[in-house]
Amino acid sequence: MDEVDLKSLVSSLTPQEENQSIKSYQNTVSVACPACDEPFEDLVVCKQNPTSLNLSLQLDLCVGVEDDRALIFTHRH
Length: 77
Ligand SMILES: [Zn+2]
Known about the structure:
This protein has one helix and five strands; from the N terminus they run αβββββ.
């Protein structure tokens, strides 16, 4: 499996929120998810391990890893 190229991915995305444990980006340009090739809504980069996510919505998630950081791609339907 190819590794996710976080830098080139993030360069297309809009930074949204950052705190101690996560950094999130909004996908405003319909970049394809590396896991399922469908455009994702948001990318969440986990900066701490382990990290808890408090999601307020029911979402489909795809997960990747880059440099030991978890990447979470959210999909809304
Ligand atoms: Zn996906």
